[in-house]
Amino acid sequence: MDFLNMLNPVARWLHILAGVMWIGLLYFFNFINGHVAATMDGDTKKKVVPELMPRALFWFRWGAAWTWFSGMILLYIIFWNGSLGMGESVGTVMVDAGSEVTMWTHIMLLVTFVAVFAYDFLYKSALAKNVRLITVISFLLIAVVEYAMICFGNYSYRAFNIHIGAMFGTMMAFNVWFRIWPAQQKIITAIKNGDAPDGNLVALATTRSKHNTYMSIPLLWTMINQHTVVFSGKLFDITGLVLLVVIVLGWHIAFQLYKKSGKVKGF
Question: Do residues 161 and 226 make contact, with C-beta atoms less than 8 angstroms apart?
Answer without folding.
Answer: yes
